[in-house]
Amino acid sequence: MGNAIANAKDKAKKEGKTSSIIETFDYEVQDRFHGLLVGLAKRIMKKYEQPKRAVTEITITNVKEVHEGRIDALFEFGDGTYGLIDWKTNDISKVTGSGMDKWQLIANFLLANYRYTGDEDNWNRCLFGSIVYYEGAYIPRLPSNEDTITKVKNDRRFAHEILCGGRPHAQKPAFCPVCDRENEGSSDCTFYREDTRRAIEGSLPADYANIRRLLVARRYLVLDERGETHKHKFVINTIVDRLGENAALHELEKSGVIHTGYRLQAINDSSVTLVKNDNDDSITLLEPRKIVRIIGREEGMGPIPLLASINEKGFVKEVDDRKLVIDLDGKTAAQRAINQLANFLIIIMPDEIKLTRRVLEPMHRFHKLAADIMLSPPQNYGN
């Protein structure tokens, strides 16, 4: 705990976020952590046996269902079942199973099912899933309601169509747990629905309509560029489907798409050092600052797909014929990599940074600012 707090402070200072390091920071973190432990102990530890292994902060990619997400923690039990944990650390309010937390949990269930069975709709090995919050935990009945699962899949399909450049019709459902409960994000939803309605009607002022048109066009360009961040995953998944995993990895390495034959050797601050096996004389086609994903091939753990295995993302810092040094996102990530990847064969896969949200956020703010200035009250909406 002390190291984690110190690492967080150090990272904030390096990023110039000293204002976020308040005098009560240590106390707040320790209190929140204690609350999460109480929530875990009261519901999860009391009801289920000790897991044989815990996997944390794992990114799972299901290419066929165009679904990717990062899961907080997975508990693996001796009988082959698993439990899913979502830590609710942003506030201490009770989770009721409605709103964004519920939908996120269902989406993570689908990813976890895929990891352990190869089929997101196979619930046979899913023992439980829980959102653990301050001194409590929400544990839904399993398997989840079919209507709920269908909603998550429909929303996922809608998002994918948007990301592929399509323009599916958007409509508010009969009940929306965000808007109807006035949760976070409801004002933005109202803003864009009204903005689109008036644009279709042709009732927007000409100057504002032109600004809106340019912003919408730019958003679609950004979404087109997003596809580039997943190209390596699609290539790997396609080859694995055609050839099988072992043959596919051999062909992918010959083509320079991936690099194998590494093992974790050491940790230094926020970097990890990987070295090649003694009998591996292949050439590593990587260079400094290249973004990569370190994947631990979980053989012997059941049918775990390659892109659902334990992994960490980082930047190449140093590289030669025998050694590879990779910078990770802080000391905590480096320590996690050593703890979780040390006993597995390592595969290095090229990756990209997803800048979609970072690029779209300023456009969103500018769009709303333009509406506030150029649409006179009460015509400016969503505020």
Q: Report the strand count.
A: 11
Number of domains: 3
Radius of gyration: 23 Å
Helix content class:
40-55%
Beta-strand fraction estimate:
15-25%
Write a short abstract of this structure.
With 383 residues, the chain is of the alpha+beta class. It is built from 10 helices and 11 strands. It has 3 domains: 22-149, no CATH class; 185-227 and 358-374, no CATH class; 244-350, Beta Barrel (Elongation Factor Tu (Ef-tu), domain 3), CATH 2.40.30.270.
Please provide a written account of the structure.
- The protein has helices at residues 2-14, 25-47, 100-117, 146-163, 186-201, 206-226, 231-243, 245-254, 331-341, 356-374; strands spanning 53-62, 67-76, 82-87, 126-133, 136-138, 259-268, 271-276, 291-297, 311-319, 323-327, 345-350.
- Strands 6-7-10-9-8-11 form a 6-stranded antiparallel beta barrel. Strands 1-2-3-4-5 form a 5-stranded mixed beta sheet.
- Strand 4 (126-133) and strand 5 form a beta hairpin.
- The chain has 3 domains: 22-149, no CATH class; 185-227 and 358-374, no CATH class; 244-350, Elongation Factor Tu (Ef-tu), domain 3.
- The model has no long low-confidence stretch (mean pLDDT 85).
- With 383 residues, it is α+β, with helices and mostly antiparallel strands.
- The longest helix has 23 residues, at 25-47.
- The protein is built from 10 helices and 11 strands.
- The protein is 42% helix and 21% strand.
- The two termini are 41 Å apart.
